[in-house]
Design goal:
globular, 27 helices, 38% helix, 26 strands, seven-stranded mixed sheet, six-stranded mixed sheet
């Protein structure tokens, strides 16, 4: 009996009967279902969203096939592998506001063949090289898939090269070895018309994803998190590698993250033997020895004594060891180098870390990023340097007269500055393999790093107690006397100097930066300056700085573009930044294009994370740009959406009644989050808006989580309560009185200035009265008459506040306009569940600026933690 399957291209195909090894894991052939994504998959999804189709996230393979090859059966072997492993038929989509794995139906895998037999020395021809590079850089679509791409190059009747490229979101390094083994087994079984013999799969990757979500809530996860808090401490940052200077005009900024190369160096058999003997005498593994050498190399090259490195770990167990999937986790090594430290002492530190890290490898790396212990303590997990030691998981397969040999593939791009890998193969021993970004380093420089690594290893195997500064002969790469890391941080790293001037010491630099901020008066430029400095990790930025002159990676620039799009609701792309590369230019685009590009009220300021989103509703002005600072401080796992005024929507009539606005906002919110509880926070005018939204949600049978107001005052919205006391006479504060009108003119100087002021005031009154009258007669206002502030003011005046059974969480400015404002801002009579007050430094406007915003973010984070069960 044949199984009828649908191919990825819609072409029907026949398959042989399922073998028992397949039956144990396959879902029904017509089933498509969604499962939660893991934290690692969310990480790669986020990287892809910054630069869709980024080939740096690919895992390219090359398998040399020598002997008689049945192409049809090889394709069928991949089809069987797709049926065995759900990951090979998985795509990704947002479901209810959360990233999900979409497990598709099995399909027939296409294997296109490119015949190059007509070329002389086809395997080494330029055309073969071009096809290899092109396939490694294949742009994958995570939403549509497939995330497995194949191409077969035919060099001769019995000489083929199979190109296999997968996206990292569905696999890790060990998965590549599993795929090769499974394909060999399936191919042999098909050639010999027998059942394949493969280990049973107790679970699929989606089952692991569900288990991980549950495990993250357990006491074991908290214990592991406490281990990392204690091990890593706080107040650490990235290692700054000295970059090679790139001649002006030679650096291709548009292909930065797609640029990648690899240099390798084989450790000699003699040195390998000495290293193994050293490990035996010191009772350590070769991994620990080589990791310690790498730490010593970074210390000698940079002069830094606080070494922070990322290191991938397998994160597999008996249930997952045979699965294809992204199990790999990232662990962080932090080691302090003391003056006159010996290598033996460093070796002990690395060994202690390794043992502890092995016991705590299940905690996703993202948990550290999201944890308030790190996010609130001047800690950066921007790690540009990674170390990996692994035994080769790719071994030659000999099946049915065919020899399949894995070859080293090319780099499709560099996500990190350095990925220092040591691959230990039985046939040749350990080979150093440094993947790097050629926009920052020259091949000759990378080779010198590799040779310096070998030189350090040669010193250590002779004397384990040698001081780090005395390891290996001194040269310009490994100086005998190390400069202080602080004094060299701006001189060794090749970056754009501040206006081509050098400043002595950090204090002078900070003084200069403070002067720059003080001279900027435009609020958008100030906000962009803070955003660029924090996102790019470079302090020496001015409004006229060209972003492409800073020496940062395109990954950082793409993060910046993504965040600016979220913040300003703009369709901003990398091409836009190339044409407008300074803060002044971008600010001008924001001013001219912000409102016209607004097509929705919901602004995804920080949409990624596993927790339920926080929706922050606009103030009277309607914009949400000031909420960006909250999202950067509240935790990387906390999605934050801004709700900006409906009146800003392009070419749409404005809603005039607050109840209609609230219903409109909830409709858009439900597209992101279908079910409650909903976390709502309103700033000023937004406070009364979230109150109405809560009423509508509760009336619909939904639940409300956090119901928060940011310095909203009841008497501004409740009829019958006295208004805020003015700072001057009440007569002056009445805008409709002639005396107040004339007193407002004071200080406007000449008659022309008085007349200009009079015309401006008259226009404002015309808009106000038009909006007020329209609200009494209609539910909407035509687009050409819209004025967001006046629309919100009229809506607030006409709204009747009603009591609610929920509790209010009030984030209250410490400095109020006058002493008559009560400590609960007058809301106790409205919220029957009580009012919980959190005081924030500053006045009504300063709560969204430093230092108030830091206190505010921490308070919001703590309040949300009470509801802190990850969204499902």
């Amino acid at each position: 009996m044949k199984q009828h399957l649908q191919s990825a291209t819609g072409v029907a195909t026949n398959m042989p009967d399922e073998t028992s090894v397949l039956n144990s894991t396959a879902s029904s052939a017509d089933e498509v279902y969604a499962m939660p994504a893991t934290q690692g998959q969310i990480r790669f999804w986020s990287l892809d969203q910054m630069h869709p189709g980024n080939p740096a996230l690919n895992m390219p393979l090359m398998w040399q096939c020598l002997g008689e090859l049945n192409v049809d059966l090889l394709a069928m072997a991949f089809t069987l592998a797709v049926r065995r492993h759900e990951m090979l038929r998985t795509t990704f989509a947002m479901v209810d506001g959360k990233l999900s794995q979409i497990i598709g139906v099995p399909y027939s895998v296409a294997l296109p063949v490119k015949d190059l037999q007509h070329l002389p020395d086809a395997a080494n021809s330029p055309e073969a090289g071009r096809l290899i590079r092109e396939h490694a850089a294949y742009r994958m679509n995570l939403f549509n898939g497939p995330l497995l791409a194949l191409k077969l190059l035919k060099f001769a009747p019995k000489h083929h090269l199979l190109l296999v490229t997968m996206h990292h979101i569905i696999c890790d390094g060990i998965s590549l070895g599993i795929l090769l083994r499974d394909i060999a087994v399936f191919y042999e079984a098909l050639m010999k018309d027998k059942e394949p013999v493969l280990p049973e799969l107790p679970i699929q990757f989606a089952d692991f994803a569900v288990w991980q979500e549950e495990w993250r809530k357990t006491e074991a996860a908290e214990t592991s998190l406490n281990f990392w808090r204690k091990t890593l401490g706080t107040n650490f940052g990235r290692i700054e590698l000295p970059h090679d200077a790139t001649p002006e005009g030679m650096r291709d900024v548009r292909t930065d993250s797609e640029s990648g190369d690899i240099e390798t160096l084989l450790i000699s058999p003699e040195l390998t033997a000495l290293a193994h003997e050293f490990c035996k005498n010191q009772n350590v593994t070769l991994n620990i020895l080589l990791f310690s050498i790498f730490c010593a190399l970074l210390h000698r090259v940079t002069g830094q004594r606080d070494i922070v490195i990322g290191s991938p770990c397998a994160n597999r167990n008996d249930d997952t060891e045979e699965l294809i999937g992204l199990f790999m986790n990232i662990q962080v090594l932090r080691v302090g180098i003391e003056p006159r430290e010996t290598f033996r002492s460093l070796l002990t530190k690395v060994q202690d870390w390794t043992l502890g890290a092995y016991e705590n490898q299940e905690l996703p790396f993202e948990e550290l990023i999201y944890d308030s212990h790190f996010s609130h303590n001047n800690t950066s997990f921007e790690i540009p340097i990674f170390f990996l030691y692994q035994k080769s998981f790719m071994v030659t397969q000999r099946v049915a007269g065919l020899e399949i040999t894995p070859l080293r593939s090319m780099s499709p791009g560099a996500v990190f500055e350095w990925m220092f890998a040591i691959v230990d193969r039985p046939e040749e021993g350990p080979r150093l393999q440094l993947e790097y970004n050629p926009n920052y380093f020259r091949p000759g420089t990378i080779q010198r790093y590799l040779k310096s690594f070998v030189a350090l290893l040669e010193s250590v195997v002779q004397e384990s107690s040698i001081e780090l500064e005395k390891m290996a002969p001194a040269d310009d790469f490994l100086p005998a006397k190390l400069p202080d890391a602080q004094s060299q941080s701006f001189s060794r790293r090749i970056m754009r100097p501040l206006q081509e001037k050098q400043f002595d010491g950090g204090a002078a630099i900070m003084e200069k930066l403070d002067e720059q901020v003080a001279t900027i008066s435009d609020p958008i430029e100030i906000q962009l300056l803070e955003l660029w400095r924090s996102m790019l990790g470079v302090e020496e930025i001015t409004p006229d700085t060209n972003v492409f002159s800073l020496g940062v990676s395109s990954l950082s620039i793409l993060r910046l573009v993504t965040r600016m799009n979220s913040l300003y609701s703009m369709g901003f792309g990398l091409a836009s930044l190339i044409s407008a590369p300074t803060i002044k230019m971008v600010a001008d685009l924001v001013r001219r294009r912000y409102a016209p590009n607004t097509v929705t009220s919901l602004v995804p300021i920080q949409p990624v994370g596993t927790k339920l989103p926080l929706f922050i509703v606009h103030g009277a002005g309607g914009n949400v740009v000031n909420f960006y600072g909250i999202s950067t401080r509240i935790g990387a796992d906390q999605p934050v959406y801004g709700v900006q005024a409906q009146a800003l929507e392009l070419n749409q009539p404005a809603l005039l009644h607050l109840e209609d606005m609230a219903a409109h906002y909830l409709k858009e919110i439900r597209r992101v989050q279908a079910k409650g509880p909903y976390h709502l926070l309103g700033y000023s005018f937004g406070g009364v808006m979230v109150l109405e939204m809560a009423h509508q949600l509760l009336a619909a049978g939904e639940s409300v989580g956090l119901l928060g107001m940011l310095d909203s005052r009841a008497r501004d919205y409740i009829q019958g309560l006295p208004p805020a006391e003015p700072s001057s006479s009440s007569e002056e504060s009445q805008p409709g009185r002639v005396s107040g009108f004339l007193r407002t003119y004071k200080g406007h100087g000449s008659a022309k200035q008085w007349w200009d002021f009079f015309l401006k005031d008259l226009e404002e009154r015309r808009i106000r009265y038009t909006t007020t009258i329209a609200a009494r007669m209609f539910s909407t206002l035509p687009a050409f008459l819209k004025n967001t502030h006046e629309i919100n003011a009229v809506a607030a005046r006409n709204y009747r506040v009603k009591p609610v059974s929920h509790k209010l969480t009030l984030f209250r400015a410490a400095k109020q306009a006058d002493s008559s404002i009560p400590s609960d801002n007058g809301w106790s009579t409205i919220f029957k569940g009580g009012v919980e007050v959190h005081e924030v430094p500053g006045d009504h406007w300063q709560v969204l600026s430093v230092p108030g915003i830091d206190v505010l973010a921490k308070s919001i984070h703590g309040c949300l933690a009470r509801f802190d069960e990850p969204a499902r």
